[in-house]
Every structure is written in structure tokens, then in C-alpha cells.
Design brief:
This protein is mainly alpha-helical. 41% of the residues lie in helices and 8% in strands.
Length: 120
């Protein structure tokens, strides 16, 4: 339900999921290639919706239309797993491929930094 179809060519990031923990564009991933890989969508990020990114998204009041948010959060979650304390520049680089029609980029980046401060 949370993973969105955006562009269909892997350039907007709305469909981002985790495939074995790696941020992956679902629209470019044939089901036949998944095999026994672990697939995680936004719903699987946290059973109770209390992942630090989800809480930071709410705290910073990120969403406007919300269409890109699942993809943004999944990309950011992969970043924080790999680099728990990224610099603002690293956040910007990691999220560079995720587009937001509402241009909420400043709040998105801010929420990732807020979440990184809440993780151990």
C-alpha cells in the first residue's frame, strides 16, 4: 500500500523498497529476479510506525502531498543503516535521486538529520 508507482523508469524514487537491506527501485526490479531475497516496504520498516525516521517525519512536519514520502524514508533508512550519523551533504547526496513534487527537500533533509540524532 505504501510503495508508490511514480515514473516507471527508476528516476523519481517513489517506489523505493529495500531488497536485502539495500534501497532499490521496485519499478525496475522484476519479481522473477527477487527469488529468496528479503523485500521490505515502508510498512515493514517498523511494526508500530515508530522508526526514528517516521517519528522525525512527523516531528518536522515533512509531508505535503505525501506521494514521495515512502520512497524518501526508505532511501533515508538505508543511508542511516549504512551511516548512522551522516552530514547534511551526505544526506543530500543519498536522497538526490528521490524527487518531491512539492519541493519539501529542506524539511526532508532536516528530518533525516533529526532521526540520525535519535539513533544510537
Amino acid at each position: 500500500m505504501g510503495t508508490k508507482f511514480g515514473c516507471g523508469v527508476g528516476s523519481c524514487g517513489a517506489c523505493t523498497i529495500h531488497l536485502n537491506g539495500v534501497a532499490t527501485r521496485a519499478c525496475l526490479t522484476p519479481v522473477s529476479s527477487v527469488g529468496t531475497s528479503k523485500v521490505t516496504t515502508i510498512e515493514g520498516l517498523s511494526e508500530k510506525g515508530d522508526h526514528p525516521l517516521q517519528l522525525a517525519w512527523d516531528e518536522v512536519d515533512v509531508p505535503q502531498c505525501g506521494y514521495c514520502q515512502a520512497g524518501q524514508i526508505m532511501t533515508a533508512a538505508a543511508l542511516l543503516k549504512k551511516n548512522p550519523k551522516p552530514t547534511p551533504e551526505q544526506v543530500e547526496t543519498a536522497l538526490n535521486g528521490n524527487l518531491c513534487r512539492c519541493a519539501a527537500y529542506h524539511r526532508i533533509r532536516e528530518a533525516v538529520i533529526v532521526a540520525s540524532q535519535k539513533t544510537k
